[in-house]
Amino acid sequence: MTPILTASNIQRSYGTLPVLRGIDLTIHSGEIVSIVGASGAGKSTLLHILGTLDRPDAGDVVLANQNVFALNDNQLARFRNEKIGFVFQFNNLLPEFTALENVCLPGFIAGKPEREVRERAQALLQTLGLPDRGGHFPSQMSGGEQQRTAVARALINQPAVVFADEPSGNLDSHNAEELHKLFFNLRDNFGQTFIIVTHNEALADLADRKIVIRDGQVNPPEVE
Ligand SMILES: Nc1ncnc2c1ncn2[C@@H]1O[C@H](COP(=O)(O)OP(=O)(O)OP(=O)(O)O)[C@@H](O)[C@H]1O
Asked: Where in the numbering of this chain does the ABC transporter domain appear (predicted)?
């Protein structure tokens, strides 16, 4: 099976503080992988590097057959828009746009035809249980609905991988559980790959694989 993502010897320091000290990992298409570890272990730092939001001091990431850090910043921004979806703890929806418009934005940025993007956005909202919320502004939706809208936005360009950083960290337990079920439905029905940083033990344990970051390394190391 060809990996969808391979990270080799990822290193990152902040000043003199070494945070990532040679991370190696492989993710396969259709997997849901959780990344766990103590507070400050470097999980978010790693997720940002795997998601191309930050560059490592050393090491490579190959995502969807592209050596991502060989790209310049403009090429990388385009690659990120087309191949990667993000879901953060705070949904980062734009308050002045409706749910449908928020979901459409990455599609418009990719230069896709407006009608095609709107139809896909509406279909995604339907799939995610929000068929009649497209015209609502974020302030008119519950936290769970906002987060599902953020998931729809992450999926609009059919990304190779969705990265999620504490996606249910701001939700009550019922909405958290619903969001976790949604990730697994999206994987089962569409083969969507997810890499999820979480302190939520239920979610971490549900994942196909749990990668533990300790002392800046994957511990225990992955065995192919
Ligand atoms: N921009 C930055 N400048 C300096 N130090 C940073 C920066 N970002 C993170 N750090 C430090 O790097 C270490 C790893 O941070 P990171 O946010 O990746 O950890 P984490 O495992 O995601 O933690 P948590 O579970 O608490 O969210 C921490 O010691 C943090 O203080």
From this structure: 5-223
